[in-house]
Amino acid sequence: MHALFPKLDQRLLFLLLVLPLLALGAWFLRHPQEPSATLVYPQQMMKHRVILIPLDGRPPCRQFVIDAGRISGIEVLTPPHEYQDYYSQPGDTRAMAAWLQQSLEEQPADAIILSVDQLLYGGLLAAREHPATEAQVETLLQFLESLHQAHPEIPIYAFSILPRLTPQDTIDGYEERRDIMAYSRLAGRKAAGLAIDEGKLQALHDKIPPSSLERYLSHFRENAILNEKLIDLTRQGILTRLVLGQDDGEEYGIPNIEKYALQEYITNSGLSKREVFLTHGADEIALTLLAAWQNAQAGIKPRIFLQYNTPAASKQVMPYMAVSTGVCAEEKVRLLGGTLSRTPEDADFTLLISTNDAERDTMGSRRQTVQMLADAQAAHQPIGLVDLSKHFTAEETVLPQLIASDFPLNQLLAYAGWNTTSNAIGTALAEACLYQAAQKEVGSTEEALSRAGSQITFLQNRILEDYFYLKEDIGLINGSLKKAGYLNTADLDLEHNYRWANLMLQSLMMRQVQTYSHTPALQAPFPVATPEGIRFLRVKELKADMSFPWPRTFEIYLETTPLLEILP
Q: Looking at the chain, which terminus has fewer C-beta neighbours within 10 angstroms, N or C?
């Protein structure tokens, strides 16, 4: 392992390890600990039980749902790790189906949320790369039917992901992949009724190897047939709700041709959007469905006011999106069972969406966005923040401005700034809905404080990962890995260098947590409504544990532990 450490990296690692410890020691000298503090810890006070078959084993698809469930007293049960997929290795679909049946026999559940891609292919990446036979599809459909027949009282919320525009990894070669994507975009524009260069389309068709193009196109045909059969199951009442997600989309492409064909099939089946819903996104769908189920079973139809940092933000199409930010946000509200409010005064909460783009000179809006949040806080209007960046840079985000202005971050109803617009909006809306539902159902002060603890945990998880890691530290880590010879940071050799890679991650993030922990923005008191009246809490201490769950740096496993103190 040391052979992979250049001397420069060793010195950097030493500084990363020592400096945070010195800073922590100095802080304790200046801030002696209070001898008698009344502390609050999130408790496992569960009222509901939901079984989740996640899209894959990454934290957004699995751990986010588990953590968010605690906010509203929902125990989210997931398959054992040994059945789950791991990066390019598919999950054990048979074992997962058997586990689901056994879990329901041992203890009933209030609902089932399941990924079709996981049960059929073994995860999202496997679904992108490997076809499914007719026999495999039929086995899955029969399993869903038998599951419903054995437990007709348990609603089944299923979701399936449409293939993305990017060719499968099994189609190799830079030029070949580039030509297929160009062909897909032109074909999508033609299908949308737009004028295109027919000669260029034909030239691309003739240039692409026939076997590669057929493999690419057959993937969409196979997926369309599968989703039509899932729609049929929903029409028959076997699936309570079906969500079809479009992953990493663009405005024009062959994926949209399939999407529009499925929309027509849904309409012809006489199904409502309450039964079958098409959405843009993938990783956040299970979390959104959890909040949608919670809203439905509690009879809640949240009124949500959507606010934007600039007048043009709602019409902006962000990276990896097939629709504008405004269309995506309104779509997520409907998926949750909510309605759009005309004013923040008439809403249950506001979601403020910032879409800064340095190339469009929107950076000045950050100060206005801070003021919008401050005004909402002064008016006691619950508000969450979606902090998007066109180029995925810290400079385009709002959070640094909030910290610099001592804005009380823990008064935010939600925060999300993950790289894809649909992921971030869906996550923030789900968090806000779950916490508001929890506040309406608490029966004791202890429960109210417990729910608040789970909410702050989820909120700080998002702040630490979405901003401090993805906007600041990931670049430093990727740079160090490349100096050590890893030119592809999406294909790490964690079998041999797991400890080194995680040590870099933990050292950098420890520095961030220590600095952030002592900011007035984090330590500012925040109110919690309890049956005995309003109580005020503050974060006395913040700890975090993190690691790489997969052999790539794009996402991390992160769990914060906020130590909350009740103020007199």
A: C
